[in-house]
Amino acid sequence: MSGGIDSTVTALMLHDEGYEVIGITMKTWDYASAGASKKETGCCNLDSFNDARMAAVQHGFAHFVLDIREEFGDFVIENFVDEYLAGRTPNPCVLCNTHIKWRALLKRADAMDCEFIATGHYGQIRQHTNGRWTVAKGIDETKDQSYVLWGLQQDLLARTLLPLGPYRKTEIRQMALDYGYPELAKKAESYEICFVPDNDYRGFLKRRVDGLEERVAGGNFVDKNGKILGKHKGYPFYTIGQRKGLDVTFGKPVYVTGIQPETNTVVLGDEADLDQFEMMVGKVNLMKYDTLTPGMEAITKIRYKDGGTLSNLYPEGDKVRVRFYEKAKSIAPGQSAVFYEGDEVIGGGIIQRAVPGI
Fold first, then answer.
1. How large a percentage of the chain has pLDDT more than 90?
2. Which residues pair with 313 in a beta bridge?
3. 352, 319 in Cβ contact below 8 A?
4. Helix (H) or strand (E) holding 171
5. Residues ≥6 apart with Cβ < 8 Å to 172
6. 253, 269, 285: which is the final residue of a domain?
7. What's the number of domains the chain is made of?
8. Catalytic residue list contains 194
9. Is 289 left (phi over 0), alpha (psi -120 to 50) or beta?
10. Does residue 96 have an active-site annotation?
11. Which position among 44, 93, 96, 114 bears the catalytic label?
């Protein structure tokens, strides 16, 4: 329970359905030291903790705060920093869901003899005739969060409830009103990274890594032929597909098309240079099937708001080669690739590299 509308309504729905509910709020980050303890938006601040506890007390079920700051920092935040320093663009929410929140929640559930864990994510859990569990999209595709759940393994899926999947956000807001929480129904939502309270990841990296700005400043912007176009502020501060904030003028729009950390080089090009038809995906987790049939069709999403592109999947050892039927734009190593069959997740992984289009 983060204190937000989705997790609160989830808990109250299950409570009304007769489940014995125990609310758990996870403290993942020292928000006071980040200057964000009074943040108005977002979850996981002190006010949100109090909101979660109040809802539990008012409806007569237990509530606990689980301190996972050390585990979260060691794993999620260090990975976030390391990925940017390697020239990639990480998705810490996926990593946190996969390796921290679900595992930590399941461990606490076992300690309390709970059968299931539940969250306020918009998605659906299904079990197939082959016995395997998968995540399906939520009914409200504008809120669907199946993309960030691709890393959940079978033992986690088997014990997960996602009550909000069959509902639209408007219905959940009405439920909050019906439960007597008008303030919650109007509460603003946050899409920022929880440990980057000002949504400035560049500033976070500078504060986190001593001397980073001095170490990486003054690298070259180059074109795809290696011609020097100017100086940049340091390769970790740029992402594939970025157009704004380059602080250089070329008389036409230019985009970041490549990042070369070993030489502190950022490659710029035209929008067409972002088109790619093939990529390699590693750290794969399969849900719906235990193996992939070479060449099987899937809709592959390469970012959260991506509508998806028809593709063929080719397993190669512990990796998957993805070939798109149509060009995909701004494939960023470090981001998640998620494979869908209809509305169900086949599996997903981390993008390792892309093959440019012709």
1. 75
2. 296, 322
3. yes
4. helix 169-178
5. 5, 6, 9, 164
6. 269
7. 3
8. yes
9. beta
10. yes
11. 96
